[in-house]
Amino acid sequence: MDPLILSRLQFAAATMFHFLFVPLTLGLSILVAVMETRYARTGEEIYLRMTKFWGKLFLINFALGIVTGITLEFQFGTNWSRYSAFVGDVFGSLLAIEATAAFFLESTLIGVWIFGWKKLSAKAHAVVMWLIAGASTLSAVWILIANSWMQHPVGYVIRNGRAELESFSAVVFQEWALLEFFHTVAGAYILSAFFVMGISAYHLLRNRHVDFFSRSFRIALVFGLVFSIFEVIEGHGHGADLYEKQPTKLAAMESHWETSTRAPIHLIAFPDEKNEGNAVALLPIPGALSMLANHSFDAEVKGLKDFPPAERPPVLITFVAFRVMVTLGVFFVLVTLYAWFRRDRLPESPRLLKLLVLSIPLPYIANQAGWVLAEVGRQPWIVYGLMKTSDAVSPIHGSQVLVSFIAFLVVYGILGFAGFYLMVKHAKQGPVEVPQG
């Protein structure tokens, strides 16, 4: 039992499970804030019912995100102590800021929002929801800055055998962090939009609460359309960043083995990782990879053979994850564009409504694929170019990790079942009447 493999599997399972809830927290908090703001401005009871209905789903999701997220930071001490000892001065400070400046603020405001319905005016209560959305986003900012530093370490010096922070501004404002933040948060907004549209479509198909769910649908549709288009455009910026800072990941994304100019992107391909050969590919778009990488069809893109085998990421996983993410990203644009033109005829569009119900899981898959691409494509480095994952694991026995890994799977499985059961039950039940006063 290899403690490295088991520790990686445990952290991957915990992280991916936690990230089932984080995107919905980020996006749904804003959608609920929009609904409550409309209630505060117009006084229409339907917007209060919307706030209560979608707000309860937000709270269930938020609770699960908190419980599953707390355990992640403990693993840096139990499973990745060598990593923590080496980069704790940089990485630890970012996590500390996230906890004290964002997480505690968000949790406090959640309590005010839950118990403040009869103690605050409608406008003040709506402001609290906007503050919750801001605190959630601030939390994401610091977590993504920390991850960005692992992807592209800057602003540090090696002193006394460890990485120490030298320039806080360089860490916070580096281009990689900005791109990762916008890409991840936009993905979260898309997920939240499809979550609301899918549940709304479920009820519209059954002709229940038509006005309620038509309005909910249209609010989410604007959100989803804007950020689906934004995500595709913004994603192009990552290609140039990878070309400069993580060329092995860029090559693995396309199973690009030979260095060449006018490097193509293949719409259909089968990477030949074992034989270190070119991908068996169909439907090439000549020069598309060069354009993605360096904004020129004639740009030279390094192939995987130019890098030592020990420094290449797993090609097949990286290759597939990239295609899943991109394919679903294009799908979201097409669906939201079509839904935009049908927004005033939703009850007359059963095929669209059925498609949206079936599409609820797809943004979850796209978000997970994006993180698989980001993390697996960085291997074998835990901090790119600075520390390998094999050097970061704690000096513990594999059996110890196996016990905790099994415990994680059992506990998370129970939590996941309970959480999704409650969300599905509430979503199917639909809104309830709000008592007067």
Quaternary structure annotation = single chain
Within the largest sheet, what's the order of strands?
Answer: 1-2
**In percent, how much strand structure appears in the residues?**
5-15%
Question: What is the average per-residue confidence, as pLDDT, rounded to a whole number?
Answer: 86
Total domain units: 1
Q: Let me know the number of strands.
A: 8
How many helical stretches? Answer: 14
The main β sheet shows up as: 2 strands, antiparallel
Give me the secondary-structure category. mainly alpha
Helicity, in percent?
over 70%
Question: What characteristic shape results from the CA principal axes?
Answer: globular
Q: Measured on Cα atoms, how large is the radius of gyration?
A: 23 Å
Written as H for each helix and E for each strand, in order along the chain, the element string is HHHHHEEHHHHEEEHEHHHEEH
Poorly predicted regions are none
Gap between N and C termini: 62 Å
